[in-house]
Amino acid sequence: MHQHPWQYLSIRILMGWLVVACLPAIILFWPYVIDNNWQLTQLNSLVVSSIAIVLSVIGLDRLTQFPGQKSMITVLPVLLSVALLVGTILLIFRLPYSVYYLSLSAFIGVIFCFVSQIILRTVTKPIIGYIPLGRCHDLLTIEDVSWIRLSRDIISNQKQFIMLNAVVADLADSSLTDDWQRFLAEATLQGIPVYNVLQVRESLTGRLPIKHLYENNLGSLLPSQSYLLIKRIMDTLIIIITLPIVLVLALFVILGIKWDSRHTGGSVLFTQQRVGQGGKLFTMYKFRSMVPTSEKSGARMASTNDMRITKFGHFIRKTRLDELPQFINVLKGEMSLIGPRPEQPSFVKQFNETIPFYSYRHIVKPGISGWAQVMHGYASDEDETKVKLEHDFFYIKNFSLTLDLLIVIKTIQTMITGFGAR
Q1: Domain spans of the chain, in order of start
Q2: Are 144 and 127 in contact (CB under 8 A)?
């Protein structure tokens, strides 16, 4: 695969270190460099800055490995997290440092990381050749890719052949002739990777197809048991640490609900049976965002401009503040902060009958936020539920701390923008 130099992590780390760590040192410490008379304060500052930029570049690289994550939203959260980490190290070990140097280095670091992401976004639009057979036609709706329809002419055109970053084919299609198979072999010999259509669809959309899940090795979609334990501990610690802020926000929501329902009445909390890990039922808590009679005709999915939602309910649903009481479910071990959203038993029964492998999403704990929520939003019908399920399967397959951190960042963005709220 032919890559732009900026796509190599080692090059970005080297350039980051030279620009963010070395350049401020040259500007501020040059007389000491000439005299070879480095001070401990200066050395500590240079080392801390070097560690910070390396961690920042690696962190951004890890987060942008996931589909559709070349945007700028990850830069500031990563930089703030790294700054908190190195600041804690300086504080704990009481290391002397230069405020002027670290301030200049931080300023240059922010600019470098933003520019780096812009360059990376510009040069990472892949050129992918596709064999026009089977399910490959479904890929053409995916954006940020230059799709090249392969033909016999391109096979004989060495120049066009070399420009391809990858070749994709529906390897399960019966009409894949011997000529095309020889072409795929030749592409591999030329150093051009060949992918099955399902692999490409998953990597570009963040969704795992469900119609033929055996092609994605269903048995391998098992979440890490060690990370499940770590995740449980982290959930508890995060809730304890953020409890003062959460209580203030909860009080604000309670007062808002009371004022909004002063004429209609109704409780502040809304409880509902949901299906959790392993298909077990539990009682989920939410702040009430709908009128008290919202389910008098039975449970149904929320839709756009749903008349059952109150005025204040629109606000707390848009900002996801209605989910705050689910911290109780997390502390009880029924939910996690991050995971597939828990569904109502009646819907689970319905979807189990109509959507293949639907129950597999219950292999992990449901979450307050999740990959499907930040990538798709709420689902209002069965077709949208199928799309969300593909996102859930992608989350289970890529179950990791890195993906959870990305979901946290995108959740904050969702709370600010109201993406997918209904």
Answers
A1: 5-123, 127-205, 225-293+300-417
A2: no
Residue 284: helix, strand or coil by DSSP?
strand
The amino acid at 193: P
Given its phi and psi angles, is residue 265 left (phi above 0), alpha (psi -120 to 50 degrees) or beta?
left
The helix-helix angle for 9-16 and 40-63 (nearest 10°) equals 150
- Alpha-carbon distances, residue 92 vs 88, 281, 420 (angstroms): 6, 45, 42
Q: The whole model's pTM is what?
A: 0.76
**CATH entry, 127-205, from 3.40.710, 3.30.70, 3.40.50, 3.30.10:** 3.40.50
pLDDT in tens, the chain (422 residues): 457 889 889 999 999 999 999 999 999 988 887 887 888 899 999 999 999 999 999 999 888 777 655 556 788 888 988 998 898 888 888 889 999 999 999 999 999 999 998 888 887 777 888 888 888 888 888 877 888 888 766 655 555 566 777 888 988 888 888 888 888 888 888 778 888 888 888 888 888 776 655 555 555 567 778 888 999 999 999 999 999 999 999 999 999 988 887 766 778 888 999 999 989 999 999 998 887 655 555 555 555 556 678 888 888 888 889 999 999 999 999 999 999 999 999 889 888 888 877 888 888 999 999 998 888 777 667 778 888 888 888 888 888 888 898 898 888 877 776 654 55
Sign of the alpha-carbon torsion through 219, 222, 226, 229: negative
First to last CA, the chain: 43
